[in-house]
Design brief:
This protein is α+β, with helices and mostly antiparallel strands and 182 residues long. It contains 4 helices and 8 strands. A hairpin with a 2-residue loop joins strand 7 and strand 8. The longest helix is centred in the last third of the chain and has 29 residues. It is globular.
Length: 182
């Protein structure tokens, strides 16, 4: 195993150790299985790429852009960083509480980062955030790779549209908050 692979394995072990228990969802797969669904949502943001990425790594912004109720229960750091682990409660449709644990498994300063679910509603969930300068702002893209609990058909028919709506709303909120910061 190479040193970067060993470091990633250590970060995964730490994330699993803090994952705890949840009424909805169990420990997730950490290696992508065959047949994972991809959902991509991309929007122009009114700030340079480095500022958009920094915005996304702030705990308070993470909560502010969520369309459903969100509560951060614990985090290893206030600002997202490689290896950071986050435990939060998200209320699906503001009704069903779901405990979710994720860790930052990749980070490229000013360009993006990715996080992976350790515990939560998906069998596998990996989320990549990227930003590239474009004109007077930047193009921000969320790329989700996932396997849901109900199978491939449900992922395509139910989960994909739900995630697209959720992430479009997150982008709308991000744009508004980034404009207000000027």
């Amino acid at each position: 195993m190479t040193p970067p692979e060993m470091a990633l394995a250590r970060r995964k072990a730490v994330a699993r150790a803090v994952a705890g228990r949840s009424r909805v969802g169990g420990l997730a797969l950490l290696d992508e299985p065959d047949g994972a669904l991809e959902v991509v949502v991309s929007s122009w943001m009114p700030r340079p790429a480095a500022e958009v990425v920094a915005f996304c790594l702030q705990r308070e912004n993470f909560v502010a852009i969520m369309p459903d109720r969100m509560q951060v229960l614990w985090c290893s750091t206030e600002v997202g960083e490689l290896g950071g682990t986050y435990r939060f409660r998200w209320w699906l449709r503001d009704v069903v509480p779901i405990t979710w644990v994720a860790f930052v498994d990749d980070h490229e300063a000013g360009q993006g980062f990715s996080d992976q679910q350790v515990r939560g509603p998906f069998r596998y969930f990996h989320h990549t955030h990227t930003a590239v300068d474009e004109g007077t702002g930047s193009r921000y893209t969320d790329t989700l790779r996932l396997v849901g609990p109900l199978g491939t058909r449900a992922d395509r028919v139910l989960v994909r549209p739900l995630l697209r709506r959720t992430f479009r709303e997150r982008h709308r909120r991000m744009r508004r908050l980034l404009r207000e910061q000027r």
